[in-house]
Amino acid sequence: MGASSHVSPxxxxxxxxxxxxxxxxxxxxDELLHEQATLSAVEQFSRAYESGVPDQAKYYSRLLPSAPPxxxxxxxxxxxxxxxxxxxxxxxxxxxxxxxxxxxxWRDVGLLIGGSVSAPVIQHVTTSCHHCLExxxxxACPVDxxxxxxxxxxxxxxxxxxxxxxxxxxxxxxxxPQYHAGKGIVRKCDMCRDRLAANEAPACxxxxxxxxxxxxxxxxxxxxxDAETDFFLPAAPDPQFTLPTTQYTTRRVFPRNTLPxxxxxxxxxxxxxxxxxxxxxxxxxxxxxxxxxxxxxxxxASLLNAFRRQHATTALIFGLLALxxxxxxxxxxxxxFRAVIxxxxxxxxxxxxxxxxxxxxxxxxxxxxxxxxSGAVVRAAGWMVAVSGSLGIFCxxxxxxxxxxxxxxxxxxxxxxxxxxxxxxxxTTWLSLLLFGLFVDAETAVRLSAEAGPILVRALLPAAxxxxxxxxxxxxxxxxxxxxxxxxxxxxxxxxxxxxxxxxFSTGLLGGIVMPLFLWTELSxxxxxxxxxxxxxxxxxxxxxxxxxxxxxxxxxACVAPRMPGRV
Amino acid sequence: xxxAELFHQETGPLTRELLRQPGRFGxxxxxxxxxxxxxxxxxxxxxxxxxxxxxxxxxxxxxNLTPTTDYPVNLGMAxxxxxxxxxxxxxxxxxxxxxxxxxxxxxxxVDWDTALTQFVRRFQAIQQEHGPEAVAFxxxxxxxxxxxxxxxxxAKFGMGMRHGDGNTRQCMASAVTAYKESFGFxxxxxxxxxxxESDVIVLVGSNLCIxxxxxxxxxxxxxxxxxxxxxxPRMTETAMNATLHVRPKPKSDLALFYGIARILIExxxxxxxxxxxxxxxxxxxxxFTAEFSEERVVEETGVDADVLHRMADMICPGQRVSFWWTxxxxxxxxxxxxxxxxxxxALMTGSIGRPGTGANSITGQCNAMGSRLFSNTTALPGxxxxxxxxxxxxxxxxxxxxxxxxxxxxxxxxxRILEEILRGRIRxxxxxxxxxxxxxINQMQCRDILDRLDFLVVQDMYHTTETARLAHLVLPxxxxxxxxxxxxxxxxxxxxxxxxxxxxxxxxxxxxxxxLIAQRWGCADLFSxxxxxxxxxxxxxxxxxxxxxxxxxxxxxxxLEAAGGIQWPAPEASGRxxxxxxxxxxxxxxxxxxxARFVWARPEPLPERPGGRFPLLLMTGRGSAAQWHTxxxxxxxxxxxxxxxxxxxxxxxxTDAAALNIATGDQIEVISQRGRVRxxxxxxxxxxxxxxxxxxxxxxxxxxxxxAFDPHSSQPAYKACAVRIARMT
Lengths: 568, 729
Fold this sequence. Notes:
The structure holds 2 protein chains of 2 kinds. Chain A is mainly alpha-helical. Chain A contains 17 helices and 10 strands. By secondary structure, chain B is an alpha/beta fold. Chain B is globular and about 70 Å long.
């Protein structure tokens, strides 16, 4: 047999007899095409539905609670795992009965496998929104698009309020909110609240052939107690985080090696490029302003007066670029102003407000620098920039920390962001110096380089080195037998993301270690060559910036989200 | 918009997109923009369960569907394929115009006139040069009965073809032969209600949960707390729910069932009265089973003796025991005898003809039974015999044709047709609504054979099927929902489908294509009364008169819809039939003496035993409930794609994997004597050491399978071949 998998068909030899011009007319063809376009005449279906009760009610009525929730209670999905056979009708029914878009699904069915040779385990798990007691989506949302109904407990998303920041998709540990790029908003399961209100069952409940899904009333206190004892679902994300209400029940005993079918599969996550640019450039800008302030404390004002303008302007431009990039992340940027609404609970709101203040302060500071008022005013404005910027970075850190993901834990994330600010702040200061020398005052620039240069280099080396070490340290998890989110991150960085990993560490070493060492050597020379310094500084700045952008790409792409069991 | 609303917008256009409103017609709330102005009930076009679907119409056009609440099959439920049945019709892969291969080998759009001219001239030229039997056809269990009857009649009576077979050969042939030999007619005894009535349900080679979710629904509705015995070498979703999971070595089940029979006979747990009144050859069978000693059965099947006895204990007379099998039995080198081993168990325990009993074959395709009874391939329409002169005359009279036009035998089965192509004796092939270049066993050889044809015509909904891509001529066909007709499901229920969608471009229903071809071929006069599916349904009804499958009592399509489908037999003047009926309630079968036969044979060894360079046994089967056969349809729905397996996978026992240093997620190669495919390893104890499993939906799987056939049914044995696995190098 042939070795290739596709046998190419033989070409058709010409048929000399073909002469379609002489073919008879095709009255039958026309008739048949017409018939084909005519739909069956379906008699108007005229059965009376006086009761108004849907036909399916006779099956699902017993799957609905007999009474609405009382004080301290709410609705919840109840899933009988012994009846969930993996047919996945619930997903398609939800899709069809809720009019979802082609690629959109609000329910999913995953698989747990495990056991032993003599007692293997295969368990499908249907899952959707858990209508949590403390929904992470709602607390993350900067525009209060989510609310939790006080009576039913349904976590509802208001589609017209959403501006598409997608923060909820990062915050929810169960991957429930689905971003819809075409509409620029997120949508999610609302437990078919209109149906429940009319005493009809949600689509999934109506459609499960095995009656595996029901609606039940739960005591909120019981949900809390269950979460404390981790009584939710094997291998599911920690229920203490959001207090999910779905009641999974089974008579089966799952062996301890029961794991999701996709437990060992990893795929790079959405990188969110506008966020990468926003984060890196805000940190660059804040870092540059702070480095400038530090220089103020070490050097004479006369040396810095002219340079200060140049540096403040450079830092401001990057800061404004960052804020511009951030709006690109919104599905509906025209509603960006709504972001202030969630200030009381959403770190994204706080970040937006903090960086708003930072931007205003930075503009003010830059103006002040150009107007050359007294040193006290400059310093005051400078401190305003530093404080608001630092607060902004802190809020940025918290946005990721509260998602509970391992790669985004407080300590490492804080160190990453601060070191990005340090590395890029110093690099940008070098950039300012370079531009200052080229376009404004070469002589002062040479003096500044000679006096401040070594300090900047001595600060850059450890900052860049420490950051590279911190990022590389995640690879230690590859040595551990146990599969953990950090091991998955390491595997992602090592295999599917290997190209960006290589690029990140090469640019990091080049911009943060090699170029600074060259620069140090050249600055220590008796007569530093300005052209060479220009080249070195350019490479240093570009490499550091590229390295930090790549590092932030990995921060998103290699961060393994907690998830419910997935498919094979 | 007020300032407050600008900041906090409760509702608006995006919210309204997901608005739900009462749908009327008993539907409950539906998406507001899909609210129907009329509904119609029809039967699903995927599997042979035959679920009722209520299609929601706006201006006569289908916009959505829900399972029909009161349809006696599915009781208001459907599997994902049914829910997505309309969605798969919209696809850029739909064939919308005829495609003709040009001299450079590229498929080019042509008009119908050119396509028909080519079809007729090429096939007629082949027939003139090599004889009429040099052109053959492959039919299907996926078209409506009226169409596959038209195809069979047109090809054999109109175009003079001798050989034609259906893809039902791949799924049902063993059950058909088993029933014919044992009962005297291809007549499955059951109704789905039997799943709800049983005390003991024996499922053999059948993963209902995945392959037939709606039949599992019926099991779950059984209020008798049934004991469920699952016989399957692999742990499946269904086996997880078993009271007793019996895991014989693959294809050793014949010995297992003979062993069970011996235990029942030796312990006297047989229904002597029923055996005496309704069967033949029991004593000889009892004598034969004596050789299946406990030691031998344990040795050959690998099943523990106590499991064997537990299984025998559960199958005892008096209980309502039903036996159900699917492809694990049919797709075997001894599928017929294995099915008959189950029939024997039902007969000897009197487990037939009563509620909750039966030896019941669960069919694959939506119209497998329509094909068995009406496709004019292995049998003349109405289950008549080509070799019987009276039958030929009867059909000739009903169709109004010269009896000399009817061949005196049924022609060659599928694999023999392919062999004849290889020998150059068949040179033209017309493939309708099936995809052998994916689904036929030992696929590389099959493709090589198809490549040798002088003229290959593929008539299909999609121009992208593996077979359509090989075709010289592609004829664009309308699909389910785009035409009228009837299906017959596993439990003999005739149901109706309707034209509720417009077909793309110039695509025509297969029925209309057959009319065009009849006219062009010059045999339209034979089919002058075959003007519409409804007219053909009347002709087919007449063909069944006096047969076990008599449906002369069924009225129009509207009557079928109103009745919720009607099971055969439904002879004229039999009154309004009950909604759920079973056969053999009087203990009388269809052989001339009205007795069922015990049929048996010694088990044969596996045609390709694992060993040497190929130490593992490859099993194949369904992957997920969201995938159907070669996926030509199901891959068109983005939701079904999400619910299917992510890519090609092979289930490997952790023991075998450890020996080869394979981890879950690794891309590995599965290699047989015939080919190799790449797949992702899934480590699971669901398969035992020495066995691997691959879903049959992946295009590559049949590159591996070994072309062995059941000698009685000619059905391919997809379920067992020898392979090895290796890490990708």
